[in-house]
Design a protein that fits this description.
The complex is a heterodimer. Chain A is about 35% helix and about 25% strand. By secondary structure, chain A is of the alpha/beta class. Chain A is globular and about 75 Å long. Chain B is mainly alpha-helical. Chain B has a single domain, classed as ABC transporter involved in vitamin B12 uptake, BtuC. A two-stranded antiparallel ribbon of chain B has the order 1-2. In chain B, helix 3 packs parallel to helix 5. The chains are: A alpha/beta, B mainly alpha. At the A-B interface, helix 2 and strand 8 of A face helix 8 and helix 9 of B.
Amino acid sequence: MNEIILKLDNVTKVYPNGTVANRDINMEFEKGEIHSVVGENGAGKSTLMKMIFGIERPSSGTITYKGEEVHFNSSMDAIHAGIGMVHQHFMLIPSYSIVDNIILGDEPTKSIFIDAKEATKRCQELSDKYNFELDVTAKVSTLSVAKRQKVEILKTLYRNAELIILDEPTSVLTPQETEKLFDQLRFFKQQGHTIIFISHKLEEVKQISDRISVIRNGVSKGTYLNADLSMEQLTNLIIGRDLENDMDEYKTHEDFHGERALEVRDLYMERNGKPVLNNVSFEVKRGEILGVAGVEGNGQQELVKCITGLEATKYEGLIKVCDQEVNHLNIRGRRDIGMAYIPEDRMVDGVAGELPISDNLISTYYTREDINGKLFMDNKAIARMSDQLIKTFAVKTKNADASVNSLSGGNVQKVVVAREYNTNSRFMIAEQPTHGIDIGSAEFVHHKLIEMRNAGAGILLVSADLNEVMDLSDRIIVMFNGRIAGYFPDANKVNESELGMYMLGAKHQSEEEIGGALND
Amino acid sequence: MWSNILTTLFSMRFLLTIIRMATPILFAALGAFTAASTGIGNIAIESIMTFSALGGVLGSYLLNNAWLGLLIGLLIGILTALLITFFSMKLGADAFLIMIALNTFADSVAIFLLYQITGDKGTTASLPTPILYTWDIPLIKDIPILGEILSGHYVLTYICWLLIIVMFVVIYKTPLGMRMRACGLNPDAARTAGINVERLQVLSLVLSGVFAAFGGCYLSLNYLKIFSKGMVSGQGWMGVAANGIANGNYLSLVLSAVIFAVFRAVSIIFSSNSAFPTDLVSAIPYFSVFVILTAVSIINYYRVKSGKVEEH
């Protein structure tokens, strides 16, 4: 066995608001290995890395680096110890040259001045040594994303990092660029560097790793030799299904004559020259829930933005809500023809926290006749309605005048759901509708969604929570890399590990199979 | 009349007026630029100039030494800057609101103190104040024309140009300057490089206060030789405007400040000519700021739009 360079013992992180990000994590990293840490979004990978890199401090447990227990107070301490991190969002200054970006904070000097010659020489030598093929005098703003990433890596090497953490490094790269990065990582390994590779793309993890550690819900699910682990086993470890919870018994099956609540055809969208949505076509019928599964960041957010019109984003393709084309309509226009929306980030897009519950309960339809007099709002009607909704949705509050900020997360979400429920829309987008709320509230929200479905609404359920998608949906599509990777006409006939394979890009259906999402 | 004006515009007197007018605006611009380099918008330059102008004169009167008076003026600039950082960084108040508050009460507080101390609401003319003099450069002063241009200016004018050169070197050639600019351009990147962003921001604001204080003391201890009500009259704002035009470019910072000074000089020369309405003439420098700022924003808008320059 090789020398252990980094060791985590019972590392636990509890945030001040009570969220447990990591619990009793034990992990060992060997010198000179490429060690992947995998898990779903929000599983606790990032928090763990932040603790290793000194950005966060563990609530309990110890971190041992090179045989000594360490207590980093800032990333500066970690850098001095020889740990480098390439962040998912680059930490570069576009108007500086590559050299200046690399030396920033650790500049070679000649008396009081920066020794520009020496700096350029050192950076160029470093770049050449690792075959980065960079002209280090170039401005960072002129570089491609892949080259910017190289600059980030050079920054860590310049500071003599022995252990390099790469946080989702391939998320911004093309397959060819990824291939090149992997070659470089293997080279680093030869040079004796240790690499921690954070990713949720299983294929890549299988391709590059020596060993793999899995984190699920903040808990370590063990470290395995890559060679000992099949793709299927890995998927099961990552996704894991904890609860069996059958919502089917609440579903009724009335006939809405196949009326469409939503139709999306050939949706295409680019961001920074890369397609983030490609050839996406599907429909949502009235009286059904179409689940969109997928690891976050595979185009779901963009899809929702296109359909809601939330962002003035340019897209190609056709979107119809309740059989009306909406491409030219703004959010108001789309809502007016029957769209409701439960946004992902309730505190930002869902509510105005400082305002009373009653205002938040009407904010998306305040122009409606029953609450809006000719000149002034009909406050009595609003009060009546909010009291009713608060009761129906069991929002825990003293009265409707309390500010939304005074509520717990689950109750805030109930306010949002109550409002959207009360629009009586025929089409609803529910984006991560139970993200981060307690089980009781989540179940309540689920029941309300099914109630709406039974009453004839078509619901597009976008969720990173596989349990939720499988429990609620009638049909399921899986998104990967901006495309529909799989379509499942019967949600009851698919299991989580199969969905997982599509979510993580290990499997992909044919055009005809996927076409069913639109034509079934 | 026009020939008269033309002769004036090309006279040595006009050039010297520009140099005199440029000093306080340059100090103010340098202050705004230094703060902006770490991402802090210092709009309190005007009020710091006012406080320091008064403080400088009073200090000089009390200590009976103009240089000690200058020191007091500078200390007041530093204290005001620290006050801003204390309220904004420690207590979490909005820095802009604090600076607006400072600006609104600067003049009245100055006059209040003035009246309390001298019994005069307008000027410190009644106080026997030692002041800073002009400086004749040995040898150079005897060279014809060049001697007249380079020699015989107020001491603080020389200090001003010296500081402009020093700050250029500091900001663009030293690790400190590189780190300061990094804070302004991408604080997160600076932080991950192990830089203490907040500390550099405090430092830059303090330096900014010092430069603004120099500008104020120039007016009261050197140029006008007294403190008088409303003497800063927008020169701090002109520095802020010059920084806005410069947008991080040091040369255009200096040029913009000098151009504003040219318009001030023009306004002074025209005001001595009774053919023009005085109010209109004294509006020239302010109007020029307005026109130049508007023109620059329009040009920038189209340059960004046409893709010639990228946004930061």
